[in-house]
């Protein structure tokens, strides 16, 4: 955030300013008062367990030039912009900041693979541009404004992850981010409790296109049936691992260490991609990133160098090796499509494959069928399937009533040399299984 004063923000948000210096500079915004400090505006949100208004005094003491709030708390003398709705005011400010930014903005959309694709795109664009990217999972109606607040005079490009769970959300995110390039990873079976079916997922995700201009670009996965058939007023560029796109992958291989390599081909251009990470999903993320890089004028060498610098984030498809096991730690989140791809990827590694799978959440009324289908796939690919969680009972295999019960039984079921995939929805906290596996001796 560059060039904004407290008075500017009050005008943009139609807020009433109490007791702050209107000329004080605001360089960013936070929603956690512990991060407040000079230049950083504290946005006081009301949550289920805490009310940000209770922390306004603390934020001001730490040097925040002003707080964005819905009321001035008792005992606070000033330094507050009062608005009817803090979240809406944050969105209004984010739209203004985005409107002043002249560099390319890339929006990442999809049911799975968004963070990997975001990181890959940022790695590639950083070879040419000073690139801002979404941090962590700040991809919703609070996270996107916080990301856009970080745009400043030094930023030359931005990669913004856009995540939703219901209709209408993507339109609101799109009005803030207004991407010049939208990257679609997959239309998959997630958040079906709200979106109902794949057509609903597609409809919700493509609300973004109505917020983009006709001269924008849509980069999409040509191997996804829903995306392959997409029609839009914007120009479309399809990428594919199966030879169906404008940008294709050829010669996929996995090294003994789990790194992947392949060629990226677009017409007469051929770029060798060597990525020091694991998983078949990396092919799609790299194709998307290379497509964006090509469109923004990067050279083949720059694209290849960016891909080579990619590193997984958090518990997303990390390969961990212990003296007795190879662990595929992919327990950040799970849905039927990402889990099936994880099983395929783990099958590429040597050793007996053991799948440890847990509940996939928010799948709606067909949840039992989707869990059963994943279990059938895992049992067809792996030597052993261990599950925990109420919904995971439908997968088959050896089921445990609790995650801790599964952890206790690990020595009984595992052998030296096994490759062990760990995957479940984030709320299942299967990272605790990964931690137990790392300390296991067989």
From TrEMBL:
Q: List the pathway annotation.
A: Cell wall biogenesis; peptidoglycan biosynthesis
Does the record's keyword annotation contain Cell wall biogenesis/degradation?
yes
The record's listing under SUPFAM superfamilies reads: MurD-like peptide ligases, catalytic domain, MurD-like peptide ligases, peptide-binding domain, MurE/MurF N-terminal domain
This entry's Gene Ontology molecular function terms read:
ATP binding; UDP-N-acetylmuramoyl-tripeptide-D-alanyl-D-alanine ligase activity
Indicate what this protein is called per its UniProt record: UDP-N-acetylmuramoyl-tripeptide--D-alanyl-D-alanine ligase
One short Pfam name that applies is Mur_ligase_M
Its gene is murF
What residues bind ATP, as annotated? 110-116
Q: Give every Mur ligase central domain span.
A: 109-292
Any idea where the Mur ligase C-terminal domain is?
315-426
Q: Which UniProt keywords apply?
A: ATP-binding, Cell cycle, Cell division, Cell shape, Cell wall biogenesis/degradation, Cytoplasm, Ligase, Nucleotide-binding, Peptidoglycan synthesis
- Origin, by domain of life? Bacteria
**What does the UniProt record say this protein does?**
Involved in cell wall formation. Catalyzes the final step in the synthesis of UDP-N-acetylmuramoyl-pentapeptide, the precursor of murein.
Instruction: Give EC number(s), comma-separated.
Output: 6.3.2.10
The Mur ligase N-terminal catalytic domain sits at 30-96
Q: Name one GO biological process term.
A: peptidoglycan biosynthetic process
Recorded GO cellular component terms are: cytoplasm
Q: What is its main location?
A: cytoplasm
Q: Where in the cell is it found?
A: Cytoplasm
Task: Spell out the family assignment given in the record's similarity comment.
Answer: Belongs to the MurCDEF family. MurF subfamily.
State the species of origin. Answer: Candidatus Scatomorpha merdipullorum
Q: Which reaction does it catalyse?
A: D-alanyl-D-alanine + UDP-N-acetyl-alpha-D-muramoyl-L-alanyl-gamma-D-glutamyl-meso-2,6-diaminopimelate + ATP = UDP-N-acetyl-alpha-D-muramoyl-L-alanyl-gamma-D-glutamyl-meso-2,6-diaminopimeloyl-D-alanyl-D-alanine + ADP + phosphate + H(+)
